[in-house]
Structure formats: C-alpha cells, structure tokens
Design brief:
This protein starts with a helix and ends in a 6-residue tail after the last helix. The protein contains 16 helices and seven strands. The chain has a seven-stranded parallel β-sheet, with helices on both faces. The protein is of the alpha/beta class. It has two domains: 46 residues, Single alpha-helices involved in coiled-coils or other helix-helix interfaces; 215 residues, Rossmann fold. Helix 15 packs antiparallel against helix 16. It is globular, with a radius of gyration of 22 Å. It binds guanosine-5'-diphosphate and magnesium ion (MG). Keywords: Hydrolase. InterPro entries: AAA+_ATPase, GTPase_ArgK, P-loop_NTPase. Pfam families: MeaB. It comes from Donghicola mangrovi. One of its GO terms (molecular function) is GTP binding.
C-alpha cells in the first residue's frame, strides 16, 4: 500500500489500516523500516495526543481483568481506548495479551477499543521501539487513551514508564514481607499504586496493603511533577469493578495538573530526546554485533587485548577510528 494512502486512512480512523501499519512498524525488514519511518513522519504533524497510561504488575495480579473493566468503563464514557503491550517474555509465553484474550472478551468486541498483542520478539529494545511507534499510530488514529501493559520482567517497567504520561502499578494484597521485596526503583516511578482484589475475604488485607504502600510512598523523595497527595495508593477490585471511577478521577487530576504546570509537555519532550538517544545507542551496538566487517574487527581487537598485545584503551581507540568516530 502507498504510504500516504495508509496515513490518510489512519487519520480517518480506519482500524484495518492501523493494524497493518502496526504490523509494518513491527517488521524487521529494512524496506519495511524505511516505509514505517516515512509513515510516522507523515503522521507527525497531525499533532493528535492521547493519554498514555503505562500499567505494570506481576503475572496474576489482575492486569488483564483490570484492563477489561477499566477499558469498558472508559469506552462507556465515550473514550476510544487502545491497548498495547511490552512483554519481553512474550516469545516464550505466547504473548501476555493474546494469552489472556478471554479475560478481555468484552473489550476486544467493543468498537471503541483496539487491542494489540505484544509482538513476538524477545529483544526488549526492539519491542520498545515497536510499541512506542504503535502508540504514535494509535494517537494519530484518534485514540483518547493508550493503555500500555507490561509484566514487569527485567527492565520492562522502565521502558514502559519512559513512554507513558502516567505510570500505574497494580499490586496484590500482601503481607509486610512482600512489600519489603518491592523494588525501590519501581516505587519511584509509580504515579499511582492500585491494590487490586479489594473484594471478599481479601478486602481487609487489601486495605492494610494500601496503607502500607501509602506510607512507603510518603517516604520517597518528593518529585516536582507531583501535586500534593501524589503519588498515591488506592484499592480497586477489577473483578467487581469497584474503585475504577475513583482511580480514573485521580488519573485525570494528576494529568490535568501536570498539563497546567507544563510537566506533561516537558515529560514528553524528555522522553522524545531519550528515545532518540536510545535509538542511536542501539543502532551503534547493532552494528558492532551484526555479522560483518565491524564484528570481525571487534573480535580481532578483542583477541589482541586478551593476549596482551594491546591495552583495552588503545584497542577501543582503534575501533572508534574504524567507525569514523574519532580522527586518526
Ligand atoms: N478476587 C479478585 N480476583 C481478581 C481480580 N482481578 C483479577 N482477579 C483474578 O486473578 C487472576 C489473574 O487475573 P489476570 O487478569 O489474568 O492477571 P494478569 O496475569 O495480571 O493479567 C484471575 O483468576 C482473575 O479472575 C479482582 O479484582 N478480585
Ligand atoms: Mg494478563
């Protein structure tokens, strides 16, 4: 398909064109990459913005159930919702979203929603770029809310936080020991912690867990991009659809405040810069590791260093000269 034509269809809200475009950005083929870049450049001036909500939580915490009920609530409010995933383990597990499609049965049938499973690529850097580009395509297509799910394996939370306006952490009701095990870095990037499964027998535990997280959040260094009271912890039940409206109200309060204060645009600008730099880094690394003259040179120099025939620094300089990155 002609790229301009595809772009116009996306702008007109054509879902099939959107799905095809996402397939295009997911492709590893060089000619596809070129077309994808052209398409994204074509769509860039449209300036449409959705609210990008990152959502993370360990397997079983209720992400799929939450996305289904939260998503249905949003579409009932007249909002168009896109769901994407960053799942570095999807190659093994068969895709976090796809595997759970039954839990999102209603949402996947909703004409106001668009669900896209994680690309089956285990390399996090690659998944990150594809997801980020899929976000841009969904925005151009007029989606109001982009939910980006991750299971939180390895660095995937950081990756998702770097492409989200709001980062939501879904947690299970738990005892104090489990709370201690939560990585500090994750707490630091969370905007809202939702303790899920606050229903039935679990409700009292959920309430205590929420208070524990609220206490832990208060101990963190205050971030300039937060109004009074944020980041915050709340209870929800994805299953019984409780607390979802309140959670949405809080998300809107936070994003609204950040917009007014300029933090919203600032964060997006910082993220764009980050992804530019990341892409340069990744491309350089890819050149060094792909089969070819550069990789051979790396290996040859590595062998010299290992045998004591050159120092690590002099060999590194030699490599940078080969790359044309230093004069020589
Ligand atoms: N009691 C209760 N169970 C829930 C809730 N949300 C999800 N679950 C259950 O937890 C299990 C895992 O849910 P799922 O959405 O697949 O979690 P995911 O792995 O994070 O996507 C399922 O059996 C759900 O029915 C909730 O709010 N309350
Ligand atoms: Mg799931």
């Amino acid at each position: 398909m002609n790229i301009t034509d595809m772009g116009d269809r996306i702008l007109a809200g054509d879902r099939r064109a959107l799905a095809r475009a996402i397939t295009l950005v997911e492709s590893g083929r060089a000619d596809h990459r070129e077309q994808a870049t052209e398409l994204l450049e074509y769509l860039r001036p449209c300036g449409r913005q959705g609210l990008r909500i990152g959502l993370s939580g360990t397997p079983g915490v209720g992400k799929s159930t939450f996305i289904e009920s939260f998503g249905m609530m949003l579409t009932a409010l007249g909002l168009r919702v896109a769901v994407l995933a960053v799942d570095p383990s999807s190659a093994r597990s068969g895709g976090s979203i796809l595997g759970d499609k039954t839990r999102m049965e209603r949402l996947s049938r909703d004409p106001m929603a668009f669900i896209r499973p994680s690309p089956s690529q285990s390399h996090l850097g690659g998944v990150a770029r594809r997801t980020r580009e899929a976000v841009a395509l969904c925005e151009a297509s007029g989606f109001d809310i982009i939910l980006i799910e991750t299971v939180g394996v390895g660095q995937s939370e950081t990756v998702v936080a770097e492409m989200s306006d709001l980062f939501i952490l879904l947690m299970a009701p738990a005892g104090g020991d489990e709370l201690q095990g939560v990585k500090r870095g994750i707490m630091e990037i969370a905007d809202i912690i939702l303790v899920n499964k606050a229903d039935g027998d679990l409700k009292p535990v959920a309430t205590r867990t929420q208070a524990d997280y609220a206490g832990a959040l208060r101990l963190l260094r205050k971030r300039p991009q937060d109004p009074e009271g944020f980041p915050k912890a709340m209870c929800v039940s994805a299953l019984e659809e409780k607390g979802l409206q309140t959670a949405w109200d809080e998300m809107q309060t936070l994003s609204g405040w950040r917009r007014e204060q300029g933090f919203f645009d600032q964060r997006r600008a910082d993220q764009a810069r980050y992804w530019f730099e990341e892409e340069v880094r990744q491309s350089l690394l890819a050149q060094l590791t792909a089969p070819g003259a550069l990789r051979d040179k790396m290996q040859a120099l590595g062998a010299e260093v290992a045998q004591g025939q050159a120092t690590p620094s002099s060999a590194a300089q030699e490599m940078l000269k080969t790359l044309g990155l230093v004069d020589g």
